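Q: For a teaching handout, I want to show students what a protein-ligand complex looks like in token form. Below are the inputs, and the small molecule is 2-phosphoglycolic acid. Please produce the holo structure.
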Amino acid sequence: MRQKLVIGNWKMHGSLAANAALLEGIKAAPARARLAVCAPFPYLAQCQALLNGSQVVWGAQDVSAEARGAFTGEVAASMLGEFGCTYALVGHSERRTYHAETDAVVAAKALRALEFGILPVICVGETLSEREAGQTEVVVGRQLQAVLDALSAEQLGRVVLAYEPVWAIGTGKTATSEQAQAVHAFLRGKVRERDAGVAERMAILYGGSVKPDNAVELFSMSDIDGGLIGGASLKSEDFLAIGNA
Ligand code: PGA
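A: Here is the structure, written as tokens, with 2-phosphoglycolic acid included.
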């Protein structure tokens, strides 16, 4: 039985005051799932300080594929590691779309994170036109394959996968639990071809308009191990309700 994991993706939201209130709210109540928040880089030290000693862990929303050097604006995995960062989102669809991250770049970022002890949360997902063209498995299969090709089984064992249909992100349109389960089962099957033990242990999260009122049904599916939560992670009551779903 895999324990549920619920990760908040704050995206480019927050302020010192708002974050402090949100983190106090999240810390105050117990959740059945393991909880994590992925904050903008300038707020990671605040998360480190305020979450110290709590059950809630924190992560970044991106990480450089490069180790160090002349890469203005990039943040290295070693820097995140120094702060005790647990997770880094990798290949979120907003990074793939607005920053032209390819499958190869996403795999390189995941590798770099692992090198410094950070667990990559690797995001995959199809657009609406890809789904309508019946290409969902082709697209997410290709995105996952790049990771399978780059990582050893041991490294794969430290990966969290997130299925986020692009058409469901921030739109209020959630995949039905059956649609999501089908893709999760497909993804787990592909990991299983590589290593059955890793596939059984791997957390595969669903993301895309998860709210307190749809989380219970989504999380009841056998291959959905929790959620990657955008909008609803900015309100502690909603985030905690999802963490208890
Ligand atoms: P959403 O975002 O919950 O606001 O749809 C999810 C995500 O982008 O990770």
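A: Two things your students might notice: The chain has a mean pLDDT of 97. The first strand starts at residue 5 and ends at 9.
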